[in-house]
Amino acid sequence: EAKMSMRVWGLAVALVAMQLAEAFQLTGYSACRPLLPAASCSFLRSRALCAGLSPSTGRGRIQNQGNVRTTLRMAGAVEAVDAETFEVIIQEETKPLVVDFYAEWCGPCRLVAPQLEEVAQTMKDQVRFLKINTDENERLATLMQVYALPTLLLIKDGAVVQRAEGAMMANQIRDLVKTSFF
């Protein structure tokens, strides 16, 4: 298993210092929380909730998710990257970064994907937008303290300056990026 660079470890240490009370959250079922300790949250229960299924049985819809895009690896301004690529980008990129930690099965992640793409299309000259699949990059998600999905990390000069959890609309993402970076 490849070792993470000191810069990535430094980001992880910086995240420890951030208080959970400062985390930007929306109410309701706006975030999937499968990565919390088992005592706090059942992984299967969260997975069922995020897929829009009944948490007790895993069957039957509990909400109408409407017209949800199912593909999260969209071609466009948001780049899907793995842990190794992320490590290189963190070390070399001069633009601020918006990093979306997501999972294919996460309903709120599916809602955020087209919203993030919309913002990325308009801001790609000033900010680099990345997506990291937490199921394929579990170690990095743990290292970056991603405990809910989707989680956006806003990184400038190698440091996390803001984090946001839960579903957001394009205007909310745009405002978050502008207040964090400009």
TrEMBL record:
It comes from the Eukaryota. Keywords: Disulfide bond, Electron transport, Redox-active center, Signal, Transport. InterPro entries: Thioredoxin, Thioredoxin-like_sf, Thioredoxin_CS, Thioredoxin_domain. SUPFAM superfamilies: Thioredoxin-like. Residues 1-23 form the signal peptide. Residues 66-182 form the Thioredoxin domain. The keyword Nuclease does not apply. GO terms for cellular component: cytoplasm. GO terms for molecular function: protein-disulfide reductase activity. PROSITE patterns: THIOREDOXIN_1, THIOREDOXIN_2. This is Thioredoxin domain-containing protein. It comes from Guillardia theta (Cryptophyte).
